[in-house]
Amino acid sequence: MRGITRRTVLTVTAGAVTAPAVSTGAAAAAGTTTAASGPHPVLRTDLVTRVTPRNNWLVAAVAIQYSHRIDFRGGVIEPTAFQVKATVGKQTAARTVTRVYSNTVADVDDRSAPGRPGDRLIVELDPNDANARAAGTDPLPLDRAYSVRQVADVRTPGGELVLRAGPFASRNNGIITPVVDAFAAGSFTDSAGFELDFRLYQPEGFVRHPHRRTRYPLVVTLHGGGEVADNNMTQLTANRIAVTFAKPQRQRRNPAFVLSPQIPLPRPMDGPDGTDWTDAKVQAALIELIDTFVSEHSRNVDTDRLYVVGLSSGGRGIYSLLAKRPEVFAAALPTAGWGDPATMERITHIPMWADHSVDDPVVPYREGRFGNPGTWTLMNALEAAGAPVSRGEWANDLPKAQFEARSRELLRQARAARGHVLFTSYTPGTTPVNPHFAWPQTYENDVVIDWLFEQSR
């Protein structure tokens, strides 16, 4: 990829790599929240949020920081010892406490026996609570929206008092979203004056040693139509597409830059089939953003390993972008997308793993949208143009191990056929929440993500 010669503007919010994506600003700077808690005063209270595969962005826990390390000597804290209330949209209601444990960091511990002695107490909350969400179209105003009160003494198995119940509740100082908080916030203004906000994850090796000539892949994520907004946030939190590539366990295996632009409001709809990523202004700015980023990081981006992934209208954007720039990308993951069959002959050489629910009512599997057909028809067009397509169909609600086993078998078939295009269809009635939402299993599927990072131009 060549850097453009026209004048561009590329800005990244200073310090946003480590700063919280949503901060309480003055509340955090003013000091701490205190509450009566026996021998361990409360220093601050934070919400811990999570981007989940199907429930989107949720408040997963409350993290209470105490002045000293707390150790329950192996004891178990009853969830009934704490009461949590949330005020969202002027409505106050209880949250259901599921587990409580001490920890050294303000984060949820997914192990069956969670936590360790530390200065934080993690109060986990039920993700199925009706008021669990952290966002609607935009992030909800959650600063000081939660209160937590200890209503029963907490003791060690030997009877030693560790935390005393009290009459005062603590309110949250801040909001912590692991992984998401590691994305810098930035904006890009192209040569025509059109601006795209974006979020950027930078691999740890690059952050520590930016002057070394270590090259990393670049993953570009294209969000769906529901994430068109001016908040520079929901392209990360509405689904796990970007988080998948930035989470620590994936970065340990495949350190990479993750670039997540967001289409702004008022919604551009000038594309040839009325979609956003095919809007002429948006697509031109996207291409220029990618070119400029690669040019600015020429020492550190592996131009043979540029990947584009996306869902719904983001899938539509992938098919259009690949056809416009067939020499740039090493591989793609389009989910529940649609496109122009006439352009498929231009991209037969590009490795691709597409997927779509057979009963998708929003982007029909065969017919697609706005006169351009869906994935099934596009895969037929690719095959007719000379790219063998390995196909598989199974339930989208299989347990992770079974789902990945089916993916592994499809990949084995593709390799045996010397093919580089794979197509997964999901049996009607098996995609949870909504048949259009084919993507949660895709981005939790280590077989698919491992395959993506194996591809090189």
Task: Give an account of the 3D structure.
It is elongated, with a radius of gyration of 24 Å. The protein has helices at 26-30, 204-208, 234-237, 241-246, 248-253, 280-296, 313-324, 375-384, 400-416, 439-443, 446-454; strands at residues 9-12, 42-52, 56-70, 82-88, 91-95, 97-103, 118-125, 146-150, 154-155, 161-163, 170-171, 174-176, 184-189, 195-201, 216-222, 257-262, 301-311, 331-335, 352-357, 389-394, 421-426. It is of the alpha/beta class. Residues 1-38 have low confidence and may be disordered. It has a ten-stranded mixed beta sheet, sandwiched between helices. Strands 6-7-3-2-12 form a five-stranded mixed beta sheet, with no helix packed on it. Helices cover 21% and strands 29% of the residues. Strand 4 (82-88) and strand 5 form a beta hairpin.
Measured between the Cα atoms of the first and last residue, the distance is 12 Å
**Sheet/helix structural class:** alpha/beta
Continuous helix count: 11
The average pLDDT score comes to 90
Low-pLDDT stretches are 1-38
Radius of gyration: 24 Å
Helix content: 10-25%
Number of strand elements:
21
Q: Main sheet, how many strands, which sense, barrel?
A: 10 strands, mixed
